[in-house]
């Protein structure tokens, strides 16, 4: 069971954004989507979710072409956590998280006790249960990010697409969010994370997918993707690596710095 793109191409405003990108995301793994700004990472996620129309190629989830799935079926299969997504309506936190259950409901159907338990569990996991009755429009950026992650978790979708999920969080909540996503993958979900922090990617991701200027540079384990040659050619950096307590760490240095 996997999510797969086959040679997808995306053009926007007569510019090529993605070129012949073929990737896979298996259930039971956490994959980091990395690359410089403008590499096409967010565009790739949006293509997978059907939010952008590809020029050519195919996208499938569990052997079904997404073009043959209804919007409701897509929402059951894939959840999207977009960092910094605006929330315009003054809804309570639990109402926003509850939107994650909508794909599982019929029109006008009320939330069941099971739905309520799933919603509360998602808020507990993301450390936003204390915000339950507050209006989401009153929250800080970090608080809102945790609420939106809880909404994604509440869908119970087998695939999670997370776009820079730790960008506005303090260090403690960055680690908490990555731990939550990692645990989801260990419970047989497929998790794809757009991430700029290569140290977090190294620490938490089973595989990495590297894009540059809309092209797939490689998809493999971190030791292959974060090689000295790839870091230098794609990012213009070198890296110092070490282990501490069994954990891998990486610090990037500009390529022109002296050691």
Q: How would you sum up this structure, described in words?
A:
By secondary structure, the chain is of the alpha/beta class. It is 32% helix and 31% strand. The protein contains nine helices and twelve strands. It has helices at 41-49, 71-77, 93-98, 113-125, 141-154, 171-186, 198-204, 222-225, 228-235; strands spanning 2-12, 15-26, 30-34, 56-61, 64-65, 78-82, 159-163, 190-194, 207-212, 215-220, 237-244, 247-254. The strands form three sheets. It has a six-stranded mixed sheet, sandwiched between helices. It has a four-stranded antiparallel sheet with strand order 2-1-4-5, with helices on one face. It has a two-stranded antiparallel sheet with strand order 11-12. Helix 4 packs across helix 5 (141-154). It starts with a strand and ends in a 5-residue tail after the last strand. The mean pLDDT is 89.
